[in-house]
Amino acid sequence: MAAKTIKLTSFIWEGVDRNGRKINGNSQAENVTKLRATLRQQGIAAQKVRRKSTLLSVGQGPRKKKITAGDIAVLTRQLSTMLNSGVPLVQAFDIIGRGHENPSMQKLVLGVKDNIEAGVSLAEALRKQPRHFDDLVCNLVAAGEHAGVLDTLLDKIATYKEKTESIKKKIKKALFYPTAVLVVAFIVTAILLIFVVPQFEELFRGFGADLPAFTRMVIDLSDAFQKYWWLILGGLVAAAMAFAHAHKRSRKLAHWVDRASLRIPVIGAILRKAALARFARTLSTMFAAGVPLVDALESVSGATGNRVYGQAVRAMREEVAAGQQLQWAAGRTGLFPHMVVQMIAIGEEAGSLDSMLAKVADFYEEEVDNAIDSLSSLLEPLIMVVLGVLVGGLVIAMYLPIFKLGSVV
User: How high is the pLDDT of residue 342?
Assistant: First the structure.
């Protein structure tokens, strides 16, 4: 007997909380009116509601999706808004968990709720999910619970997550374009070598003269590619997989790759600025939450996104723990620009280190945005040159013998 088909409706919404801050999320409800009423009870004024419908069979659950860092950012933003509106913590987790359209996220949120109901603190409940909540988040939540300002700390975590994820997406976007073009260039070159060059080779056999060295080289390359394409393709795939595996297993290789990436023209500068922005944003958030500087640096070392900077921050932590000022420890690494060191020094002297670091983070986040825009403009003509050299070189190699056909005749 065929399963009965029902229509489950979920909504993607945007709104503002009672403090005027923007918030968004995913919820399920019978209709738009009931969804708006539920959000009003949570202290959220819905501004935009978009329906997203899927047909599912009874007995089948919605398709599981991977939990992303963006999902965690939305979760912390929703929790902050609900707690600030007076919704109890357990009830907030229940509302978010049951209303989420991703079964994996539902399981995670409701699992945390069950631990809280069992008497465990929120920080300890989150520590049981290390894949989704790192030490930085757990330490900030613990500080918020201890100081009684959990909603404020969750808001800071959400802001931190949103900004760091924004930087990651922009860097990936900047690197995706040239990578995609190189892949397309390789495919086009392979097609020319396999299907086009052999046709010219048949034509050249009747010329009765020696072929130019450039043409002969291209034809030999085509012959090798036709005979061993499977070996070349398999070798490239195997090399990529072996490198990825070694990169995960070997700290020395991972450190070397991160250091080498910082030396790449143009791209290296973007990665440096992104690492500085994440360092400043993370340390500012943790220090503002009341986390001791030495403990904060331990968490910051894993949040810079680059092992070279992570190692430098751990060295800074050792010096700060020994009584050294943060500005001197940062200057000794040789990785932090003079401006950053001076801003740290001013913050230490004025007792406003968190606000100074926040300004540094804002500056470098804007620098990353501008650098990525400039990179896109720079790469377009450069990529055209690469494609022109590859394809144009093959075309010229094939037409050189034709140009000399008159002398042969």
Answer: 92
